[in-house]
Amino acid sequence: MTVNLLDFDAAGLTAFFAEHGEKPFRARQVLRWMHRFGQGDFDAMTDIAKSLREKLKAMAVVLPPAIVSDKLSDDGTRKFLFDVGGGNAVETVFIPEDDRGTLCISTQAGCALDCSFCSTGKQGFNRNLTVAEIIGQLWQANHVLGFDPKSDRIISNVVLMGMGEPLANLENTIQALRLMLDDNAYGLSRRRVTVSTSGLVPAMDRLRDECPVALAVSLHAPNDALRDELVPINRKYPLRELMAACQRYLEKAPRDFVTFEYVMLDGVNDSDAHAHELLAVTRGVSCKFNLIPFNPFPGSPYRCSPPQRIRRFAELLMAAGIVTTTRKTRGDDIDAACGQLAGQVLDKTRRTTAQTAYRTIDLHEVRT
Ligand code: SAH
Ligand code: SF4
Fold first, then answer.
1. In what order do the strands lie in the sheet containing 214-218?
2. pLDDT at residue 84 is higher than 50
3. Using one digit for the tens of pLDDT, what is the confidence trace for 6-62?
4. Could you give the domains of the chain?
5. pTM of the entire structure?
6. Which residue has the higher pLDDT, 363 or 246?
7. Ligand 1: which residue has its CA nearest to atom 15?
8. H helix or E strand, kind and range, residue 314
9. Of these residues, 19, 171, 338, 365, which one is catalytic?
10. Are the beta carbons of 90 and 84 closer than 8 angstroms?
C-alpha cells in the first residue's frame, strides 16, 4: 500500500522509517525536504542515499490536496479551493497585512455543529480532513505564494478558522499543529498559530496538554439561553464549563489571554445589556475580545449590526479595561470572509441547502 508521507508528524515519520529499518536522522532529513523546502520529488532529495530514495519511491508519495481554484480579492486576500476527493472541496484563505501574512486553514469538509449564523455549518458535515489534507493546505500555499527574500517567510501566522471545528478532528489537528511548530518543518512560533473552537471542553483540555497554541473561543452570546440557540454545542458544554476550561487552558497556553470571538448580529446579541452581561460572564478569564461583523451568505436569517452599534459595543468592553478589536472584513468580494467559506460538501447529515447545489456547479465549472 502506498503511504502519503504528508500524513506523518516527526514522531510518526520516525516510527515509519524505523519499521523499514531506517534511522531517525533519515526521517528528519526527509521531513525537512518535504516541509522546509516543499520538495515532493524523492529524486530531488539529493543528500538521501539513492537506495533509500528508490525504497521510498516504491512505497510512498508526497501528496497534498490539489488546488482547483485560486481567487484574488481587491484587498489582496487570496482564496484557494482544494479538492479533497469524493466530491468534497475545502477553502483556505491567505490574508496579507503589513507586518504579517496569515493563512486560514480548514480542518473538516463541512461542520456538524450547525451554528445558526455560519455558512459552513449550514452545509452539513461530510468528514474529517486527514493530516495530509490539513498540512497540505500550508504546503501548497507556500508553493504558490513563494518565499519573501526580505522576511524569508510570507506566511508568518496560521489560524485554524476555516471550514470545520478543529477540536472535533483533534488527533489530525494536533499532528498538523506539531508539523507547523517543528523546526524541521515550518518552525512557526506557538504564539503565531491559533486554534479557534466553538468550545469543545474535553478537547480543549487535551489540546492544552498535548500541543498548546494560541486559543480563540467563539463565544457569540453572553448567556446560555442565547448561546444554546446560536452555538448549539453550548447545550452540551454551557458557559460556566467553557469559562472554567479557558482558565485551565491558560495555565499552559503560550499567550496569557484567550481571544473571545463575538459575531455582531443586529438586534440579536449586540445591545448594551449584552455587553455588560458579556463582561460579567467572562470575569476571571484573562481575555481579549475580537468583534466580527457578521458576513451574510445566501439564505442567512441575520443582518450585521450597524457600524455605530459595533463601535458602542466595543467601547463598553474597552471601558472595562479589556482590549477589544473589531475584525476588518477581508475578501468578501470573493466570499472569503469569516463564515462565508463554503467549498463543496457532500453532506452526510442531510442538512444540504440550495446554496450547496450552487457551489457544486461552481466547482464543476472550475474543473472542466
Ligand atoms: N469551528 C471553529 C472555527 C471555524 S469558524 C469556530 O467556530 O470557532 C471561524 C470563526 O468565524 C468563528 O468565530 C465563527 O463563529 C465565525 N463565523 C462563522 N460564521 C460567520 C459569519 N457568517 N460571519 C462572521 N463570522 C462568522
Ligand atoms: Fe462549525 Fe465553527 Fe461554523 Fe460553528 S462557527 S458551524 S463550529 S465552523
1. 66-72, 78-83, 89-96, 101-104, 157-160, 193-197, 214-218, 258-264, 287-293, 324-326
2. yes
3. 999 999 999 999 999 999 999 999 999 999 999 999 999 999 999 999 999 999 999
4. 3-61 (1.10.150.530), 66-367 (3.20.20.70)
5. 0.93
6. 246
7. 218
8. helix 307-319
9. 338
10. yes
